Amino acid sequence: MPKETFLSGLSARMARLGWPTRHVRRIMQEVTDHWNELEQEGRERGLDQAAASDFAWQRLGDPRALVDTYESTMCRASWAGRHPIVSFILLPPLALLTWFLCWTAMAAGASELYAKLLGLNAPDWGSYLTVLFGVKVIHYTGVFTVPIFFWWWARTNFRGLKWRWIACAMCALHGMLNQVTVRPHLLQWGYGIAPVEWLPVLAPLLVAVAAHAFEQPGRMRALAALATASMILAGCSSSKTPQHRGWIGGEYKPVKHLQDGSRGLLVTALRTNTPAARSGLREGDLIVRAAGKPVNRMNAFHQAIDTTQPGSNLSVGVLRDGTVFDVPVRAGRETFTPTRAIVVGLLLSDEWDPWPNPSFSLVALGYKREHKRLDLDSPEARFKLAKTNDKDHPSLRSSEGWEIWLPVLSFSNRKRILSQSDIEAEP
Amino acid sequence: MKKTNPAFLNGVPELLVLQLLARREMYGYELVKEIQARSKEVFGFGEGCIYPCLHWLEKTKLVTSRRASVDGRSRHYYRLTPRGRKRLDSLTAEWNRVAEGVTLIVGAQHA
Question: Are strands B26-27 and A409-421 parallel, antiparallel or unpaired?
Fold first, then answer.
């Protein structure tokens, strides 16, 4: 067997098994040196070139058998390799259980502390904090999962082991699950999955898997580069087509209703030229339901408004002076464009907020989610708008949306409000 | 109850490599030649199998390696660490004990 055939066979087999490149390079260096020495020895024994090659091959052994020996030795070298059942079957559920118990215990402990110090309702706060701690951890792991996934993806990009890709897919799935939005409330448990948040994880994986099908490093590189570029372009592109949704105006704050412990939204500010004010809502009203469903968080209320067609009525249940009655609010129209961005650069924040709530900021890492909506004629919005240069087409970058930043990369998904208009009742 | 014997035949390549590296640092081919010469070519194994063994010993910190360029070739030289020397001592003692036992049985059958 010629030297090149032997060495390329050996190298290809190791690559197919998905061994780390550094390790493969080292073995190849040593085996090549060994082959050269053996060939030289063969020639010294009076063999011609072909016979010396055969001599080296016979002495070194069959490449397949060699790789099998390497594989079994390397498996034996790691603890996980020696105890596969313990490491891959028994330990993961145990670790998960421990994690869950730890956070539950911490949340329960915190709830007792709150009960003692502040006299708050213990079971209520216990459940609330359990969910909050859980969400916090999910967000932290989410922040780390995405870069780890990218690192893994880059590392496995030039190799072709089936199990590596399966591991990659699992990693991506984990990343996606971390993007699941849990509403941290006792009464309302829901999952909101936004495809845009999956994109950075999914796009390279899909194309890399497709590239793997070609089994050609050159094409794989090209396609992987294409995947990255498409991912960045997709992330940077924002829909230029204006979209519409219902708008009633006003500022609201979630509060607990004192009498029966239920929750609602307090109308804290309401300008007279908003649909809500025109329909009869007042500052100080407590909104308890919208479109027939109880409203205890901003999310639910916003969802009800968003699903109301501009011009149609939204039935809002209001508690005023001890009685609850329904007010039909004719929704106006809000025009906006979604803006999504991927920013590359050194991103640091002066905030330090490791407190367990869904948002957090640790200078170089952070996640923010804001539900606040602004009326374009509110003082805050007018102050922001005064700074925009385009006076003919003013648009307000709403604080509503999410933003995630890592030391060198940031992703955000917000909305740019173009206009808000009341639709007058038809005569 | 006594512990079962470790799979002593699995430890043989380790013992041979450590024993040879205890004298001086060597590279893979040199090590194989030395094993063949000293054992009068008793062991017939694919010579490439020496490398996983060496890498494993390096990973468990029983040997260290250094890279050198000789005649334009990249070559890795291995040498024993103090930890490797201890391991060699214990392996040698274990081997002597096992060999003694085997000799007693095999020798008794032939007697």
Answer: unpaired
More confident site: B33 or A197: B33
Q: Is B43 in CB contact (< 8 Å) with chain A?
A: no
pLDDT in tens, B35-92: 888 888 777 677 888 888 888 889 888 999 998 888 877 789 999 999 999 999 999 9
Q: Report the residue count for chain B.
A: 111
pLDDT value at residue A212: 55
Which pLDDT score, from 0 to 100, does residue A77 have? 65
Alpha helical stretches, state H, chain B? 12-21, 28-38, 50-59, 82-110
ipTM of the complex in this document: 0.84
pTM equals 0.44
Residue A86's Cβ-side half-sphere holds a number of Cα atoms within 13 Å equal to: 6
In a mutational test of the A interface, the residue from B47, B60, B65 whose CB has the highest number of chain A CBs within 10 Å is B47
Pick from B29, B46, B52: CB nearest A73: B52
Say if residues A289 and A304 touch (Cβ distance below 8 Å): no
Q: Which of A128-132, A238-242, A271-275 has the highest mean pLDDT?
A: A271-275
Contact A55, A38 (CB under 8 A): yes
| Rounded distance between C-alpha atoms, residue A123 and residue A146, angstroms | 35
| Distance, CA of A277 to CA of A266 (rounded, Å) | 14
- Cβ distance of B51 and A61 shorter than 8 Å: no
Of B58, B66, B54, nearest to B13 by C-alpha is B54
With beta carbons under 8 A apart, name residues in chain A contacting B46.
Answer: 59-62, 65-66, 69
Q: Over the range A269-286, which residues count as b (16 or more CB within 10 Å of their CB) and which as e?
A: ebeeebbbbbbebeeebb
Asked whether the beta carbons of B31 and B21 are under 8 A apart, the reply is yes
Of these ranges, A121-125, A180-184, A268-272, the one predicted with the greatest mean pLDDT is: A268-272
- List chain B residues with CB under 8 Å of A1: none
CB contact under 8 Å between B47 and A77, yes or no, is: no
CB contact under 8 A, A61 and B46: yes
Q: Which of A10, A32, A68, A73 to mutate to test the interface with B (most CBs of B within 10 A)?
A: A73
The residue of chain B nearest to residue A75, with distances taken between CA atoms, is B56
